[in-house]
Amino acid sequence: MTDLVVVEELCTYFQVRGPTGRRAVLHAVDNVSFVVRRNEILALVGESGCGKSTLARTILQLQKRTSGRVLFDGQDLTALAAGELRRLRRRMQVIFQHPHGSLDPRVSIGQAIRDPMDIHAVGTMDERQSRVEELLGLVGLHPDHAQRFPHQISGGQAQRVAIARALALHPDFIIADEPVSSLDVSIQAQILNLLADLRASLGLTYLFIAHNLAVVEHFSSRVAVMYLGRIVELAISDELYARPLHPYTQALLASAPVADPDAPARPPAYIGDVPNPLEPPPGCRFESRCPMAMDICRQVDPVLTEVEPEHWVACHLYPILQRSST
Ligand code: SF4
Q1: Which among 21, 120, 252, 303 is least buried, having the fewest CB atoms inside 10 angstroms?
Q2: Phi then psi dihedrals of residue 126, to 5 deg
Q3: What angle is formed at CA 172 by the lines to CA 88 and CA 221, rounded to 5 degrees?
Q4: What is the pTM of this model?
Q5: Cα-Cα-Cα-Cα dihedral sign, residues 25, 27, 28, 34
Q6: Whether residue 262 has pLDDT greater than 80
């Protein structure tokens, strides 16, 4: 499988006012590197505020990067002129968390789906109209929905409209930023199934952002776990759920809800507090919460390392375990 998106040492920092009013730098995305392979679903998981959405916006060049590169199908997005980037953007689309928030209440569903084609002047008026009907069918909506307005449809239907609009320009790559987290659980499953079907039938590639590992367990090809601006673990899905290596991933999995009222009480997922993102610690960023922390963790920032084929982790435990087992 070839790489469609390559993220290289990407950093996005923000100048902010700290609690005392002094200028400070927020390291929202800090030296992040990974690839998204063609036709895969790469899930990006972490708690709110860990930098997932900023990373997504920086990949799409909707947010200015501080340093690093993003290659899409071999082209460096960070070096493209505005016109070239605009043309390439047709192939990269985004679906947001709040479907109703991403729809203009004064614009009909049909026009909302048609907007990207109008903006990019794709096809004739008739072709755009037929494409709207085709897209409504693709996402499981009736042609009559085209005449409705956002307040006349449910949250699940609104997310289907957002998906239809994202598909309007025949993209290759879709970033889905928490697309099901504001929906009821039963609707979540329907939207996940729809996205999986569309990937298979249209050959799409997804970067799927979630704050809950349980949501992406049966949906993703690989999972990247993010903590405080960094990727701390990345592995093939089955491997990550069967054998999470990073203590943060283990804690996330331990805190995932279980649909069994008789299940034993779970131990606390974390100890300690999240460090101040304006002053990240010099060593491991998870050290203040990690039950396995060692002296080296306070001093040396662990590097994301492939400790087993296709299993990457940024934690001082693993090189030590590997050395002691040889
Ligand atoms: Fe815990 Fe140390 Fe690993 Fe960080 S590097 S997760 S503190 S064991």
Answers
A1: 21
A2: -65, -40
A3: 135
A4: 0.91
A5: positive
A6: no
Does any ligand 1 atom lie closer than 6 A to the CB of residue 297?
A: yes
Long-range CB pairs of 259-262 (<8 Å, 24+ gap) are none
Residues 63-116: pLDDT tens digits?
999 999 999 999 999 999 999 999 999 999 999 888 778 889 999 999 999 999
* pLDDT class of 259 with cuts at 50, 70, 90: low
Q: How far is the CA of 256 from the centre of ligand 1 (A)?
A: 21
Distance 304 CA to ligand 1 centre (A): 12
Which amino acid appears at position 227 of this protein? Y
Pull the structure tokens for residue 154. Answer: 């449910």
Ligand 1 centroid – CA 297 distance (Å) = 6
Helix, strand or coil, per DSSP, at residue 147: helix
Phi, psi of 93 (to 5 degrees): -125, 170
Q: Kind of pairing, strands 3-17 and 23-37?
A: antiparallel
Tokens, residue 167: 């598909």
